[in-house]
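Following up on my earlier thread - several people asked me to post the actual chain instead of describing it. Fair enough. Here it is, all 50 residues.
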Amino acid sequence: MTRLVALALSLGLLAGCGADGPPVPPTKAETAPTGLRVSGEARIGIVTGF
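Reply from S.P.:
Thanks for posting it. Predicted structure:
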């Protein structure tokens, strides 16, 4: 039973590889516009004294 599960898992992973065909690089229209700026703030910590 274990061999059957391992075989089915490995065949499933193998079938999933390249299912959509070979990788295709993005075209110029799909890339983000130049000058794009991301800003923000992140805080990590512990709050005490509710």
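The chain has a mean pLDDT of 76. That should answer part of your original question.
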